Each structure stands twice: as structure tokens, then as C-alpha cells.
Amino acid sequence: MTSLQSSLRPVPRAAWWIINVSLAALFLYPFWVVVSQSIKSPAEAAAAPPTLFPGSFSWGNFAKLFSNENGGAGFIQQLGNSVMVSIGATLLTIVLSTLAGYGFARLRFRGSNLLFFATLATFMIPFQAVITPLYLVLHQIGLTNNLLGLMLVYTTFNLPFGIFLMRNSFAALPSSIEEAALVDGCGVLRAMVRVLLPVALPGVISTALFTFFASWNEFFAALILMTDQSKYTLPVALNVLSSGTFGTLDWGALQAGVAVTIIPCIVIYVLLQKYYVGGMLTGAMK
């Protein structure tokens, strides 16, 4: 039996490695194409058929991307718009979803479950279905073509999932922790902030990552609500860049822009992935 197990063991392990390496190559190949195209010279990047590896290394596409040749407003300003809107929406979502999640998990009241499920039901509403009334509301309060208005829109649409994660994160904690803090003289808000919130940190980070990635990559709302090119975010700026002047496509500059868009997401995810996985598992188990 032992010899049979030892003879079979290498086969599943080899198959496991083959499957994982194949999946890794499958997901990394598009990223390599983006990086290799972005570090080619503009002439080599535009060559057909494209080569997998660059013949010469060049920062020309990045230099052209960050110049004012592409769109006038400049890619740096549009990069700043994306950073500001994404971080602002993330902070707002964290604060609101933490307070709401704590309320749904700990401060039970009549109709709380119904209200919670009504909140989750907003997941079912397609964003495109409400863009017209949303535009009218923003127009009435003077927030169309405004980065603050776009930030509030992203917060609104990421809030239900954030509330779901934070409610489950607080519900997973033993009530004795909060009771001990209350006995020691903490108020409800102070017990939440000083005692429960550090333990529920994976849920907070998961909410932050989900909101940041969704806001960073969102295209449709930014395209509809922003009309001034100086207020475009990166996805819209890349769309303008892909159309080019007189319909021409600057392939190298476009891939350099895609690389600039991807790199922050990869760095943030790699640094915080252990909290992200923990937070998502907490949300899935409850």
C-alpha cells in the first residue's frame, strides 16, 4: 500500500504544478504583452505583426504619454483625477459601510433584517439603468462634470457590498469583546472604534480594496458624467488615447497608459492580499 501511494503521489503533484503554471502563464501573458509593447520604441510598437519580446528598450512611449501631445490636458492631470476620485470614494465607503455594518450586526431594531436585504437588493439594479436619473440629480445639485459628484456616485454603488462585508465582519466577532469594553466604561462608538474595528481589520481592507479597484477601473459613469477633458479619469483618457488624432492609433503610448493603470492595482493587491482573502472569507462564511 505504501509503495502504491509513493508511486502515485508524484503524478498528482506534477499535474498540480502543470495546471498552476499553465494558469499563471495564461493570466500573465496579457500583462507581458502590455509591458513589452510599452517598452518598445514607438516604431517597433507600431510594427505588424507585433513581436513578443522588444528588440530594443525605450522609454519613448512613456515620455510621449506624459507629454501634452495626447489630448492637451495631460496624462498626469488625468492620473491625479483617478487617484483623487478613487481614494475619496474608498475613504467615504469605508466610513459609511463601517458605521452601517456595525449597526446591522450589533444594534438590532425592528425591520433591520428587511432593511439589510433591501440594501443588498440594490446589487440587482444595473448601473446603466439608473444613469439617466442619476445625471438629473447631480445636475440639480450642481455636481455634473465635477470630480466630487463622480466620487459620490462611486461611493453610492460600492456601499452595498461594503455594508455586506462589514456587517459580516462585525457579526463574526464574539459579543463578549464588546461587552467587556462596555463594562470598562467605553461608549458604543468608542467600543466599536477602539476594540472591534482593529479585530475587523481584514473586512475594512477588503472593502477598501474592492472600492478602490472598482473606482479606479470604472469607465461608463466617468464617460457620461464628465464632459471636461481636464477632469477625465484614466479609463476615459485611455479611450481618448486609443482613438488618436484623425483616427490613428498610437499603440505604444496606449500600452504604456494601460501599464500605468495596472501597476498600482497590482502593488496594492500584493501588499494587502492576506487581509483581502481573510475579509472575503469572513464575508462568505456568515
Helices and strands, in order, run as: HHHHHHHHHHHHHH
> How would you classify the quaternary structure?
single chain
Structural class category: mainly alpha
Strand composition percent: under 5%
Average pLDDT confidence is: 82
Q: Which geometry do the CA atoms define? A: globular
Task: Give the helix tally.
Answer: 14
Low-pLDDT stretches are: none
Cα radius of gyration in angstroms: 24 Å
End-to-end separation in angstroms reads: 41 Å
> Helix share of residues?
over 70%
Q: What does the largest sheet look like?
A: none
Description:
The mean pLDDT is 82. It is built from 14 helices and no strands. Helix 5 runs parallel beside helix 8, helix 9 packs across helix 10 and helix 13 packs antiparallel against helix 14. The chain is mainly alpha-helical and 286 residues long. It starts with a helix and ends with a helix. The longest helix is centred in the C-terminal third of the chain and has 35 residues.
Topology summary:
Layout lengths: L1 H7 L1 H29 L3 H4 L14 H6 L9 H32 L5 H10 L9 H10 L6 H25 L3 H9 L4 H12 L1 H17 L2 H6 L8 H10 L7 H35 L1
Helix pairs in contact: 2-14, 5-8, 5-11, 8-11, 8-14, 9-10, 11-14, 13-14
Key structural traits:
286 residues, mainly alpha, 14 helices
What's the short story on this structure?
The chain contains 14 helices and no strands. It is an all-alpha fold.
